[in-house]
Specification:
This protein has 326 residues and is of the alpha+beta class. 29% of the residues lie in helices and 22% in strands. The structure holds flavin-adenine dinucleotide (FAD) and iron/sulfur cluster (SF4).
Length: 326
């Protein structure tokens, strides 16, 4: 690993100042569970690491009843999975957090780092100078692409690896981002970018920007949410496909619904058609199958990952049945 200077800022201003305007030389570190691996494999070679943990106040969970939930960016994934209010009212997030990696990683990894973690494509993590690393081609197109995306790809076919991002999208979270002098609020749906917009970055953060908090609006009365993940192995594993859903019901009627898939696209993928189709329906076992049939119609799977379309539909069906007690 390349030598680096370790900087311990006392506040966000100092951290942003240290970050400056250059991606490559200066990086933030939170729990280090992704970044240190990238540095050991020379995929990141910063001169300066800026430790967010030396700044007070970034690790917190605050519930403001009737308004919103506020989670500090340095909050550990374990604390989110186990928090009673999150489990009861923001269930999709607690369920997603409980399925991230292993207990050790959930005890070190933070929500901010989870959202900003880099892709897991085996060519990107391996010794291949692919497009995302400044090379000329995407090795996944003609290569092994079982775990790559089926929608929203080109010219790079990564899937976004974060479980939490999918649940946060289903719950319509906002990210509070400190950018040098002031903070701004960005809806999570506007945070991630597709490879055709930027093939080197997965989100809109600028070099000196820091996520400080995540805000999730209080769910309206009659709202329920959930998260379901399929992983190939029983122990820690990234989502092959996952789904986060939030629905608002009035008696048996669904008034609104939001469906977001993970593991299918380079960003959490909002399934617009199905979200619209849910509105005004009464879900029964046969109507759920008709409904899930319309999802991911625009998918263009690669050679080895056609199975993801079927898997996504089945996960959504299972989750809708669970949320509707069918
Ligand atoms: C073996 C293994 C299995 C895993 N399995 C899963 C899984 O199943 N599901 C899943 O979702 N994840 C999984 N992960 C990823 C893991 O959850 C992330 O590594 C972790 O959440 C990152 O958090 P961190 O605090 O350690 O981030 P770090 O490693 O410290 O940082 C990660 C990145 O985020 C940036 N960053 C950190 N905090 C901020 C901030 N506040 N503002 C702006 N940028 C920031 C850093 O600069 C860095 O680029 C796995 C990781 C490993 C190693
Ligand atoms: S999918 Fe993206 S990260 Fe993976 S090889 Fe292709 S360009 Fe590189």
């Amino acid at each position: 690993m390349k030598n680096f200077t370790y900087f311990q800022p006392e506040n966000l201003k100092d951290a942003a100042k240290q970050l400056g305007n250059n991606w490559k030389d200066r990086l933030l570190i939170a729990g280090g569970t992704d970044l240190l691996g990238l540095m050991k494999h020379n995929l990141e070679r910063p001169d300066v690491l800026i430790n967010l943990k030396s700044i007070a106040g970034l690790e917190k969970i605050e519930y403001l009843p009737g308004k919103e939930l506020r989670i500090g960016a340095l909050t550990k994934i374990t604390d989110i999975a186990e928090h009673p209010v999150i489990r009861e009212k923001f269930t999709a997030l607690a369920e997603a957090a409980g399925q991230v990696a292993s207990p050790q990683l959930r005890n070190m990894g933070t929500i901010g780092g989870n959202i900003c973690q880099r892709p897991r494509c085996w060519y990107y993590r391996g010794d291949f100078n692919c497009l995302r690393k400044g090379g000329d081609i995407c090795f996944a197109v003609e290569g092994r692409n079982k775990f790559h995306c089926i929608i929203g790809g080109a010219p790079c076919f990564i899937v976004h690896p974060s479980d939490l991002a999918v649940a946060l999208q289903a719950l319509e979270a906002k990210l509070i981002i400190f950018s040098g002098k002031k903070s701004k609020s960005v809806a999570i749906k506007d945070f991630f970018v597709l490879p055709d917009a930027d093939v080197y970055r997965e989100n809109i953060l600028k070099p000196n920007e820091i996520i400080t908090e995540i805000h999730i609006p209080e769910p309206a009365s009659g709202c329920q949410s959930g998260y379901l993940k399929f992983q190939e192995r029983e122990v820690w594993d990234f989502a092959t496909v996952s789904v986060g859903v939030s629905i608002k019901k009035n008696a048996n009627f669904i008034e609104t619904g939001l469906v977001v898939f993970g593991g299918v696209a380079p960003r959490p993928w909002i399934e617009q058609k199905i979200s619209q189709a849910l509105t005004g329906t009464i879900l029964k076992e046969n109507t759920i199958s008709e409904l899930t049939d319309i999802c991911l119609q625009d998918a263009e799977p690669l050679e080895e990952n056609k199975y993801k379309v079927v898997l996504a539909k089945n996960l959504l069906k299972n989750l809708l049945m669970r949320l509707n007690n069918i």
